[in-house]
Amino acid sequence: MKAAVLHEYDETLSRDEFVRYQDVPTPDITRPDDVIVRIGGAGVCRTDLHIVEGIWRSKVDMALPYIMGHENAGWVEAVGRGVESVKVGDPVICHPLVTSGHCLACRRGDDMHATESRFPGINTNGGYAEYLATGERSLIRLPSTLAPKDVAPYTDAGLTAYRAAKKASRHLLPGQFAVVIGAGGLGHIGIQVLNALCAAEVIVVDRSETALALAKECGAHHTVQGGDDAVERVLELTHGNGAEAVIDFVGEGNAIAQGLAMTRNAGYYYIVGYGGKIDIPTIDMITSEKTIVGNLVGTYPELVELMALADRGLVHLATREYRLSEANQALRDLHHGKVKGRAVLIP
């Protein structure tokens, strides 16, 4: 099969070629619950750029050459002898983690902290290819309203945004405020989820005029141009108090300090983007009683819930399509901020 393969890291992201389009062996069924999926769409994520940079070397055991792609959807191509819930030809979306289902975390539905798992595109070959090896337990059949190429990025970008927004929605009441920092691939989904799950006013902060325009299309009630005065403008909109919830999809640069400053006392700051550091004096944590919450992708049931929202038209993805052979162009465009929403590779 054809695949876009990472052969070496590029810490400066300056090479013309990040991955090599080449022939590789097609994956086989090796376990009774294995499923081979013919890829209909593979999302291109900023995490993929971090993988190219080598940032993930200290977190997971990856041996090069290796195939990225952890946002995948397509059609069932082959199944192991124990598979019963899907059949060949079914359109499916893949939860990003393949788990055994036997550990206590799995039995509690806490997929992301399973003790027995593999993560295609992160620590094993992923979906920048014509075919993907995954497991039955990770698959959700798609309704006829949703095409694989249109929903693939929901498996990480959508699911991560959904998880954070769902957490926030549980304590947001009418008349209260939620701030979304970053209206890109994750943020534009988070805005829609907040509107679907709660009645808070949504304020979106971003430096890009294009991203702010997308935020408006997705239902933002207020938009704020990112910059040194962003905190002041958010405080004006929230009557000087700050927001009850701030979801930071950037997580680096001055976004963290600004996000915490936008969070009202006893409010919640949800950190989703990464690359920076949270540095706050303990006395400030005590006197403000702010809660800082980390977010790691999401569970299988949450992906089911997100697909239900998509099926009803309550959330939609802004996507830009590339051929699998154009993977380098997609990665470069993402790196240089030229992608509105999410990029999707199509074999």
UniProtKB/TrEMBL annotation:
Primary enzyme class:
oxidoreductase
Q: List the cofactors.
A: Zn(2+)
What are the protein's UniProt keywords? Metal-binding, Oxidoreductase, Zinc
Task: Give GO MF terms, alphabetically.
Answer: alcohol dehydrogenase (NAD+) activity; zinc ion binding
Classification via Pfam families: ADH_N, ADH_zinc_N
Domain of life of the organism encoding this protein: Bacteria
The record, for InterPro entries, names: ADH-like_C (IPR013149), ADH-like_N (IPR013154), ADH_Zn_CS (IPR002328), ER (IPR020843), GroES-like_sf (IPR011032), NAD(P)-bd_dom_sf (IPR036291)
Q: Which parts of the sequence belong to the Enoyl reductase (ER) domain?
A: 14-345
Which EC number(s) does the record attach to this protein?
A: 1.1.1.1
Q: Does the keyword Oxidoreductase apply?
A: yes
Please state which protein family the record places this protein in: Belongs to the zinc-containing alcohol dehydrogenase family.
Name of the protein this chain belongs to: alcohol dehydrogenase
* Native species: Caballeronia temeraria
Q: What is the lineage of its organism?
A: Bacteria, Pseudomonadati, Pseudomonadota, Betaproteobacteria, Burkholderiales
